[in-house]
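Below: protein 1.
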Amino acid sequence: MTVSIGQPIQRTESIAKVTGRARYAAEQPPAVGQLYAWYVPATVPAGTVERVELDADATVHAVLWHDNAEQLGDVEDAELHVLQSNTVAYRGQIVAVVVADTLQDARAAAARVHVRYADVRSPDNTLTADHGSLYAPESVNAGFPTDVTVGDPDAALASAEQLIDNWYSTAPMHNSPMEPHATTSQWSDGVLTVWDSTQAPSGVQGDLATAFDLEPENVRVIAENVGGGFGAKGSTRPNVILAAMAARATGRTVKLVLPRQALFDVVGYRTPTLNRVRLGADSTGTLQAITHDSFQQTSTIFEFCEQTSESTRHIYASPNRRTTHRLAQLDVGTPRWMRAPGEAPGMFAVETAIDELAEATGIDPIELRIRNEPDVDPASGNPFSSRSVVQCLHEGAEKFGWDRRVSTPGQRREGNVLVGMGVATASYPVLISPSTASARVEQDGTITVSVAASDIGTGARTVLRQIAADALEVDADAVVLELGDSALPKAPGAGGSSGTSSWGWAVTKVCHSLKAQGSYEPGNSADADTTDDVEGQKELARMAFGAQFAEVAVDIDTGEVRVRRMLGVFGIGAVMNPRLARSQLIGGMTFGLGMALMENGITDHEFGGFANHDLAEYHIPACADVTDLEAVWIEEVDTELAPMGGKGIGEIGAVGSSAAIGNAVYNATGVRVRDLPITLDKVLTQWSGQVPQAALDHSTGR
């Protein structure tokens, strides 16, 4: 037996994926008489639907709208109440669905559906920090408190020797995974089976049971392969409700695949954020006060609030602190999770402000961060299970060549570009949820381990096999991993960087139980539930940390920013599989690059929705944008985590990377852009058509 954890073994399903044998939600073999559905989006920004009619010569099996759709049960998420009301809350909202023999027929018929609207009005969809609908929600995402105040931050800010007081904003961002949201649905003898592209098979099972008044055991959700999600598939989405509704109405299997444009409207997105950050420090750069007030938007039909200020509560020591969250209810679709929700935009704001404080005090940005390192968690007062910020900063600085950075902005010119370096810290909570798992010994001696997890491309199948193999003390080849099916032992969804820890704990426990039986006789089996284990953890602050470094080149004539290289150094506990870990961290850093320089959902203030709702106009990083990205991690042993000792890696790579790029742009040019993305017009506007004098002084060709 060889140790599996820590080995860079290849993905279990890699051959199946590259040869096309891996099936996704929309790729199930066609059932006899299978039909296809296509949705009809609202074309008005707000109002009501009076009538839905189809051209007489269009041949379809059904046109469902609120007047003839079946009534659903009371699912908590109002975005799932599709076709239940005549109210149009935002442009792009689903107002009808057409079912036909072929995909082409369904799409063509949907284009010939006529919707008569009433009470149409202009959209109220502009987020401002003084919007009349602003309110404080009871709590924010993941159950964190809305507001927290410690000490007297206003008095401390008023008396501070150094004061930073600025606004930072981030644009709407769209997950838009490679595989769009898709569902194949069928009913048989009162049992609903769906093949769904989801991060949470057990969660979708529960919502479908409620919506269609079924016992959970009469609902089966299969998500064998999922082509990315990034949070957009973390909860039940309207496509699975519509597909099930259409299948019941027609009595046939129905396939529904949302087009790319729909992914910008009805499945969620990262809310735009406005952040006022104030830092008060003494002459040594030691923080005396920090406040972070965040503003974001939600829909008029369902509340969602990112924990944008939450990370500010944990990252730096200060005796006086205030963090708040406010929501504006607008005529927009409901925002949702997007990779590192809250932490990604929140730490852009704070880490940019810290860089500004470093500039104001003349202290190196790394040294300033180290001076404000807390001994315990500032939010709870609890000790950290482990904290590696300083080590990540030191090791990153050495590896990246931070000593070559010129501290005065605009001093380093190479040909027609200005070059600069930036740094930012990163943090993300360790989230672990209870899970169940089972294991059984097969007749051929292999051991099947089952858990209703979802592999969204992260390599969960592979890592859970490695975890099981070590717990059983067998080779990984002796383990067969079953996941992606709600019929398997119930498990939390893939999200919050919690999957491996949550599922892996249950897998470890069930494998230890099987091993304790003394032999692996065919037919032996075991079950496990980690609810008591998770709830019995010590009161500690458990977080992953990192340091992000970026070097950029800014074209003097155009203002175009190019990221030359990035380095992320992370403290993420034990790494289960280095190959998969690096892939996840590099992916997160690429997310941050897109957030920093190009991703920008443009709100249409006249017609509602987003003006750029496809990947032709919503720009994401291409291979040419991602040149030299490197992710490494420190050796970190943390015994206060799940038994495997990992901290989760799916999102920490995205945190801090956009701030590091923005700080590098400032170091290169002297231009501070506080509104993401950093586009060339924002750079040139601050230059006012002039290259910084320092760059001209060092020029030989201009």
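Below: protein 2.
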Amino acid sequence: MFPPEATEARTPTTDPGAGGAFRLAVVGGGPSATYCMERLSMTAGRLGPGESLEVHVYDLGGEFGAGRVHSWSQPVTSFLNRITGQVGFAADETVRGAHPLRPREDRPTLHEWCRRRYEATGDPDFDLRPEDWPKRYVHGLALKDMFERYVAELRAHPGVTVELHPVEVVDVREEDDALVVLAADGSRRPADHVLLLTGHSHNRADSSERTGRLARFAERGDAVYVPYAYPLDVMLPRSVSGPDTVVGCAGLGLTAIDEILHLTEGRGGVFAPDGDGEPRYRPSGEEPRRIVAFSDTGLFTYARPHNHKERDPERLEHRGIFLTEEAVDRLRASVGTPAGPGGTGRRQLDFEDHVLPVVILEMAYVHYATLFGPGAAAFIASRAEPRLRRFLDGEVRGGTGALLAPLRTAVAEIAGGLAAALAAGPAAAPAPGWPLRETLLRWIHVVHGADVAALAADGYADPGALAGLLRGRTSPWRLETSPHGNVFDWERTVHPLPSGGHRDREAYREALLDFMARDHAWAAQGNLDNPHKAAADGVWRDLRGVLAHAVDGAGLTPDSHRVFLDRYMRHHNKLANGAALEVMEKMRALIRHGLLDVATGPGARVEPDERSGRFRVVGPHTASVVHVDTLADARVHPFSPDRDVLPLYRNLMAGGLVRLWRNTAADGSSFAPGGLDITPRFHPVRADGRAEERLTVLGPPSEGVMFFQLGALRPNQNHHVMRDVLTWLEDFWEAVAAHRTARPSEVVS
């Protein structure tokens, strides 16, 4: 995933602590710190007789194990967007190179941890199944508990001390060839190795022209600008979001959902089912008078489908048929362009021209494999594969349309055969090159449900039975009932509401509500039976590693890398990283109630209104103009050390210990996405071009040269989060061994 020139020279470093304890500083006490403490505690036996280890863990909020984002003290209205069965806290048998492992009973999943806590407390927040979505504070409590266990194990080990410092680290300096950690309380501690696990921060309001203008306007008058959402109760108190205020929420993703629920359910409002089972909102009177939520797309993130893969992920998660690492490598060899100064780096791809067509082909395949079943899927794959081979070799022009043409022809043949079988009976249909009975019954199962499919199987031989059974039926999941329906359409997938198709606010609101109702019905069907959700989940989640293989380490040209981050990461988040269906149903209930206003539509912009002293939100496609008293930024800020609200990375850059990474093409064009220049072993590259092996950086600061570097640890998956921890751990113990050899012989004896 990295170009050859990114590798580092493994050179020994000056050992400032020779003869004493090896000193590890961990900056950031969030989930990654929990995972690192787990591995460190299990490998502490690598310390030799008479050797000692000092571990200093710093967390600016003092919430060790969870950190600020996953705090156990956060509002109970925020949900994790990962089911309990897919969250772990320790390495397991699937993680290559992870040994020794702790006993199985000592490494519970979040679901198992919740069951134990429910049995002890009876609290319904812990009464969760593996496929349930937990409240985020519950995850925080579990992280805190596991972190404390791991630290206790470390402290019990001879020669190991662990100190926790609830203070912000503001700098790491090199002084006389030693590293010194400087904290906001004025303390200075030397370190032999520093592990940076700082997680998500946010950018200063004055770091961009747009946000700076909004912040300065708020400072001059009565309007309030909130540049970052968390902690919610601190950033959005009643004083700026009470019943007399209109609150603007700039964003429609997960952070926006957290804000909206905090301002409604968190203020005492209640969601209760009505007569048709749909949730209705009953306000408390403590909410803002109105919440105006908007974004460039005008769409909330899509609802995550019920995860039916969790019962057997090894078998049920999708493995690429067309979109594979081998396919990416073949494209790189055939159509890639040289990278780096003088064209000496590995060949780069254009995501839209080269990778996206294969992504869309894979999505279409998963969509129709879900709709028609495995026999039809094999037929479709056999038709599509020859054209794909030619595309990978650079012999096919015409982009996505040309690549998908054979697949579409095969799908049309299948749909026509099913339609003929329904009209005249299966016996009258011509013998196809795919299993007719299996395909027809699968299609009925997906569109109408298992019960109807069972009836169809019983009456399969009767020429008129199938047509009579299905006549007049609608799909419980709002799928189309014609075999020619339910067509996969990439553009409709990412742009379900055309920007120019709504004449006013009310028309847009109704169209959005209708789309959300359809999307939620699809999510309720799940990621194995709904073709639309299966395609998104199977490619943008299950094959995320293949996407990383294409993008990481300057895998794309600089211009294409910029487009990928600006456009396709948004698609990724919308399609595969959304909120639980339960949460999204609450958003729909708030829109129906009228408290939540999303009718500004796509392309909304915010302007200071000098006359009213408030912010003005303008929707160009719906002729919407709404004034808000408080404007809250509800977007996750990309990592940017020179714009970060915290001084640590600015100071590290100023001291030369780190530098920004740039994706550079052979023609000299370049793109700096904001992340640090990191080696394959997660050591930052200094300003002078040398790898700084005494520092390791995991998480968002490395999101530049690498793709999607943050997430909760997933069990039984050889998960990248734990593999990254093991990379650090291997180098850490090598550094301890080097420290050992530098000690005076009389200390060792």
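Residues 1-18, 745-749 have pLDDT under 50 and may be disordered.
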